Amino acid sequence: MGTSLTPEFWTMFAVLLVVAAGVTFVAAATLDALAVRLLRRHVHRSPTAVQARSVDTDNRVSVAR
Question: 32 vs 5, 25, 28, CA distance in Å?
């Protein structure tokens, strides 16, 4: 005994497909923005970069007038 796929089914299927695609897009964009923010924060606060800037090993004389 088979079931027929009614126009109501296809309408609901299309609506759910669009909603699922929208949710997937928003979730991916949100997670991508979060990952970029965390990477920028990690790069900005890396201890090796702070130590490299704080230690002045350049003993050359400045020639700027």
Answer: 38, 10, 6
Q: In this structure, what token pair is assigned to residue 32?
A: 């991508």
Distance separating alpha carbons of residues 7 and 15, to the nearest angstrom: 12
Q: Return d(Cα 54, Cα 47) in angstroms, integer.
A: 11
Q: Return d(Cα 53, Cα 36) in angstroms, integer.
A: 24
Q: What type of residue sits at position 48?
A: T
Query: pLDDT, tens digit, for every residue of 29-47?
Result: 999 999 999 888 877 665 5
- For residue 3, give the DSSP letter: -
In sequence order, which residues have a C-beta less than 8 Å from that of residue 53 and are 6 or more positions away?
Answer: none
pLDDT > 70? residue 54? no
Q: Which parts of 1-65 fold into alpha helices (H)? A: 7-44, 47-54
